[in-house]
Amino acid sequence: MTGTGHPTRPDGTPIDKEALRRRYLRERDKRLRPDGNDQYLQVTGRLAHYLEDPYTPRTEREPKTDHVTVAFIGGGFAGLVTGARLKEAGVGDVRIIEKGGDFGGTWYWNRYPGAQCDTASLVYMPLLEETGHMPTEKYAHAPEILEHCQRIGKHFGLYDNALFHTEVQDLRWDPERSRWTIRTNRGDTCTARFVAMGTGPLHVPKLPGIPGIESFRGHSFHTSRWDYGYTGGDPTGTPMDGLADKRVAIIGTGATAVQCVPHLAQACRELYVFQRTPSSVDVRNNRPTDPEWFTRIATPGWQRRWLENFTANQTAGMADEDLVMDGWTDIARRMRARVAALPPEDRTDMRKLLAAFEDSDHEKMEEIRARVDSVVEDPETARQLKAWYRQMCKRPCFHDEYLQSFNVPGTHLVDTDGKGVERITETGVVVADREYEVDCIIYASGFEVGTEHARRAGYDMTGRAGTKLSEYWAEGMRTLHGTHVHGFPNAFLVQPTQGANLISNVPHNLTESGRTIATIIKHALDHGHTEVEVTQEAEDAWVDLLVSGAGAIWRQRSPDCTPGYYNNEGQPTPRAKFNVGYPHGALAYFHYLDRWRTSGTFEGLEFR
Ligand code: NDP
């Protein structure tokens, strides 16, 4: 149905663009609230039990007081891929410090039923070629991804010196000895020549600040700390028979809820799904991997080819073929078709390009809304499940059983018309003055994003001049490549912002950063340098380049979006303009970074 002329609905009728824009703004306005990020509760004090690790008992150990060459904070994909590349480069002395009880990061914590990757496993799961693993499904489920993290840890010897259930509380540059001092909540005071950090964007659970939340007398937990002891079942999909006689509320309908609601719908006596903003839920089409097909495609260098192809497909006009062929590449394919239909002289006109993107988006969202009608039997429920915003305003979801759950007897959508849950009582959840009595409340309420970096990380790194990172970034993030920060020698960040900023496949950002950091550290060690730091000029030039790009234009438009963590809950902040990527696109960034890294001169870095 992808058109190149006036955008149309799946039934061929023209879309009234003005009417749709007005509808989107009306729906956004319903959801705007003055308290922005402050509407959420920080999970501390009396709520701290929501953070407890239900998966691995904590083991006692002696505090560490030793020195390592590289310390990595975070044992998720970022730490694993960087650690792996360091080991490959011959830097053996690597310590990963992780707050969970094992490697895995987001996949350690998120073991809720139905959890699976939303990006195709062949490009999402890192180091498949190096570890020889064939993902069993196009979108692997969480237990397989967690096991893969452990596989990487074992394959590259990263368990040897790792510290689990350990949270960094202080990180300070020691200029006398050119090294970092690391203090943790386990009494460790160790040092490292280099530190790298991959603490992840979504790892601190948040709770909605619903009045009465602490008064509930029934059972409750956050999706990232799933209580299988209560629900029965396990992450592999064993039915949750503990819920057979239970009335359960789930609060939130984001990407997490979309994946676990189908399992709850099958298990609970009654399930109430409390919705503030519907997710857009497109087709999933998961399937097992055919081993014969995999053997044919898995020739040397295959994963890099697939990564590059997937990323190329996210960049308008760049890809001849589409290896992954899924919802993400479909979004980009449609945009490319729209851009290709423009007269050549218009293809560099940002206004015309944005209009083409909007047309393509309108068609896609109309299809997603039509899908709701075709699946959900009750017309009123179907009406309430439709998302009225542009697809990239919120995290796009893909699922083939979520919408169907609302046809299961005993599963009820409780739409709050953008207002959110009104109140929680000792016995239930209140919306529009009606109390829904439940035995258990599951919070699918997401993770802190817009709060201060130091609050989420748990420490505020102190650099060369005694400056804290939070002070240096008071006006917004400043880095070279999203990795190096002036004033913070021998420190590296592993995350997408100010680099490729490829959100459809976050691990691709991380693997490239890991490779780069390993190359730089190896270079420093081989040449006897004790310090490496980005110059002020190089950092400034990089930030200037980023804020002048198209990503910055999209950021300015994001206040039109329905509130969420993508747009700081609808509250524009001057700092948001720095949360962008390379202006020429993700693929161009990876090529640029590859040239920069392999040149061996690392322009912009100073080695001492
Ligand atoms: P989200 O932040 O996306 O969703 C939180 C949900 O809670 C939203 O639906 C929100 O509504 C709702 N909510 C918040 N406050 C209230 C309230 N007072 N009353 C009612 N509802 C409320 O969290 P998720 O855990 O779903 O997802 C977070 C991110 O994690 C995703 O965006 C994605 O990046 C990642 N993820 C990735 C997956 C994958 O790749 N497979 C799977 C799951 C998550 P509202 O929208 O109105 O704010």
Automatic annotation (TrEMBL):
InterPro entries: FAD-binding_Monooxygenases (IPR050775), FAD/NAD-bd_sf (IPR036188). Its cofactor is FAD. One of its GO terms (molecular function) is oxidoreductase activity, acting on paired donors, with incorporation or reduction of molecular oxygen, NAD(P)H as one donor, and incorporation of one atom of oxygen. The keyword Endoplasmic reticulum does not apply. It comes from the Bacteria. Gene3D superfamilies: FAD/NAD(P)-binding domain (3.50.50.60). Pfam families: Pyr_redox_3. The keyword Transferase does not apply. Keywords: FAD, Flavoprotein, Monooxygenase, NADP, Oxidoreductase. Belongs to the FAD-binding monooxygenase family. PANTHER family: BLR3857 PROTEIN, L-ORNITHINE N(5)-MONOOXYGENASE-RELATED. This is Monooxygenase.
